[in-house]
Every structure is written in structure tokens, then in C-alpha cells.
Amino acid sequence: MAMDSETYFSSFAKPFIDATILLCLIGYVAWHLWSKKHPASPPGSRGLPLLGCITSLRAYPERVMAKWSQKYGPVCMVKMGLMDVVILGSVEAANEAFAKSSSFADRPSNAVSLFSSKYGVLFLQSGKFHTEQRRFGLNKLREFGMGKRKLEPTLIEISNELCDRLDSICDQNGGVSAPIAMEYLMYDTISNIISHMVFGYKVAEEKEEFQKVLREMVEPSKLHVLHAIMFIAPFLQRLPVFNYTRRKEDLFRNKLHRLMAVEIDEHIRTRDPGNPRDFVDCFLDEMEKAERQQANENKSRPQNENNNSIKEDDHDESSHQGEWRPLSSFSRDQLIHITKDLFMAATDTTSVTTLWMITFLCKHPDIQDKVQKELESVYGQSGIITMRLMDKLPYFRATLQEITRCRPAVPLSLPHIASKTDYLMGYRIPKGTTLLTNLFGIHHDPKIWPEPELFKPERHLDAAGCFVKSPNVIPFNVGTRSCLGQQLAKMQLFTVSATLLRKFRFALKAGENPDMRGVSMVSLRPPACEMVISKRF
Length: 537
What we know:
The chain is of the alpha+beta class and 537 residues long. It contains 16 helices and ten strands.
């Protein structure tokens, strides 16, 4: 007998309805479990199951995260894939996390491969190895002039070399240049300064291979944007498009590694032990000292105890057997990585900030006029640019501080990770949680900075016109993992900017209207644009 239509429909509809109900229940349970947080966790969005909030970041993650901080507060937690990420959106939160606590001083071990978490200094895990290397780095950079007047002649010489190049370009066209891009010139100049301290000479100027590396650093591309997202969420490197970015990054890292190794081997061949010429020589002296000390200890120790000496790979304090040996962190591999970190970080961040300075002054010619008038009133047309007279330059210093407020070179700083479960401003932060300091968000908090998007150096002057150093401008972050070379960066920014602005006027090419949000790719780069440069005298 033929099945009636109602019975026929029911035989197919019931399984479909049952499956739909089952899927809804599974979805509800998955969403509930995904959204579930510890009662003391910071507020924040969980986003979509498995993806979290990663799809919200797009081109300007620092701006998206600033909105999250305004919505949820100075400590908020969001999901990035399966990772919990805490975003710090105030100076108070950053200080409590990194200056007052040791629980959040570590770096993530799955960080992007351009920087190593095993060697170097930027992504080195917290502990005695890091402490020893950071202390050595600070001491030796200071020895070679960081934060001291003895470095000023080098800064002035290299800044004047840039001026000579611009002079030559301007002279070809009656004192006014054809439209040019400043990126290559600026990266060359800043790299020469750090190269002088680390290698004893201007390596990028004299070695073509280093020139090529600088060009790769400067060239913006979609790969850099993907790299920035991967920097926040390293797990993405497993996906095909990100994996391709990772492979390109590995090639660049290996190229840089080889160049550093060649320079170090040349230093080993030509050095005079005990009479260091530069940072590399100082490190090699410490290596020899460590080797001698280890050899003496091995001689005085019974044979069956020799196997307990600290190996090169024993960077984690928890892995050490027995007492920590002084100077045990000095090795050739460590030297290659720390020189790479210094060269990359110092060149990129200071170049970016100086380029932002020039770009903003192109957009605000009235501010450029005030800066140039003040510089000329203090130094004249031919006086030596020296930081000894900085107290007489309140408007210039206010402009520098406003640049670092508006466009911090690394807007999300470098990631930290919780080494243990601890509390931060009353919120529970589980072990393994990634922490990002949104420097851009802190510098654009409307509660502290009225009209934060406006470029206003005057906000850093008091009623008497004196410069006021702001505790709410922290471009180098805070705490024990703050930027190692921040004093050098300040000296470079001051000297290079003052030298250029006293001698040249900068203007955008006719019709040029750059996007002043910049290009966010770990460092926040100024937009690519061409400038017309004219000699002032």
C-alpha cells in the first residue's frame, strides 16, 4: 500500500530535526565551555570558538586593542585562537606587571623565529642567564658612550654625513631636491651608529651584504603585516599563508646570522685580547675569562664531578644542577644572537621614530617652523649640536616627546608571559598567559590625552613654556625587560633630528596625502611617501 505524504515526510524530517537539535546542543555546550572563565579573570571578549578574537585585528591591532581597553578596562583578557592574551592599557597596569612583580617577566618560547628565545637578549627567558647578559650589555654600551657625552662626536659625525648626502642631492637641483623617499637614507644613518659601537666601524656602509639586509628591513610588504599578526598569535604560523611568511623569515634570519658570524670571526682573527675596540671585542674577552675560570674549576674538581658543569644550553635556572657558574652565559652562539638583536632593534626602532618625526613635521609646517627657529636660536647656523644645551630647547623636546607618544615604534611592545599564576590589579592571570602592553593605547587614552589623535607638542609644556617629562609616555615600556638601548635611542633621535631640521626644510611632494595611521608590522612604520627637501642656508 502506498505511503501517504504525511508519513513519507515524517520519515525524512524526524532524523533531520533530531540532528539539528543535537547540533544545537553541541554548539551550546561548546559555546558555554568556550565562554567560561575563572570568576577572578580580567574582563574581555572570548570571540568565536577556536578562532577567538584574531579575526578582529586586521591591519591595525594596536587600535583595535585600544578600543578593548576603553571598553573593558586597563587589564582585559581576550582569546587569540586557543591562547589567553592579557592586554595592559594603562601605565599603572604596566608598572604593576613588570616593575613590581617578577611573575610576568618571561618571554614566550614559541615567539617568531626572527628572534631566538634561547640566545640573544630580546626574547631570552628570564633568569640568571638573562640578568647576566642584560647587565653586560648595558655596561658595555655605556662604556662605548650610551647616555654619555663621549658618544656625541660620533653621533654628530654620522648625522653630518647624512646632511652631506642631502646637500649633494639638493645641489643637483638648485638647492631643492626632487621628490625622494627618506627611508633608505635614514636606515643607513642609524645602522652606522649602532655598527660603530658593536663592530667598531660602519659595517652597513662598507659591506654590500649588510646593505641588502637593510633594504629587506625597509621594504614594506603584505608579508610584514602577516608577520605582525603572527607576532601576537604565534600559533598561526602553522597555517599555509603564515607558514610561508615564517619560511621567508627563517631565510632572513639565517642570512643575518651568517653575516654576524663572519664579523665575529674577523674580530677573533684581528683582536688584541684585553684591548677591546668595540662591543664584540669586549664579549670575546669575557668568553676567554669564562673559559679560563671553567678550566681552573675543572682542574680543582674531582674527575667524577666534571660532568656536572653547566652546559651552553642550560639557560633555564630550573635545569641547573648545583651552583650557577659566573660568566657561564658567554659563548659564540650567544655573541652572534646578541649582536643581531642589537643591530636589528636599534636600527629599526630609531629609524622609524625619526622618520615619523619628519613626516609629522611635513604635515604640520607651522610646528616645523617653531622647531627650526628654536634650534637656530640656540645653535646658530653652524654651532655643534650637543645635548648639553637641551634645557634651552623646550619646544623641540616637547615635539620629540609628542612623536613618541603619537607613534611608539613598537606599539604593542614585546610580549611577556606569566611564569606562574599570579594576580594583577586584582585579576587572576594563569601561568602561560601572554601579556601585551598596548603602548599606542596608553598614549591615546582620552582620559589622559585630550584629543589624542592631534599632534600637539604644546601638551608637553607648562604654563611658563618649560618642557615637562610625562610619566604617561613610555615608548620603551617599563620594568626589568624594558628596552636595553633606550638611552642610545634618545641620543640618536635628538642629534639626528636636530641636525637635519636645523639645515633643511621638509615638505611632502605636491599631491601627497599619506595615511598617518602608518603601517603596523611589529614596528609601526610611517607611510611610504616622497618628500621635497630644501636647504635653509
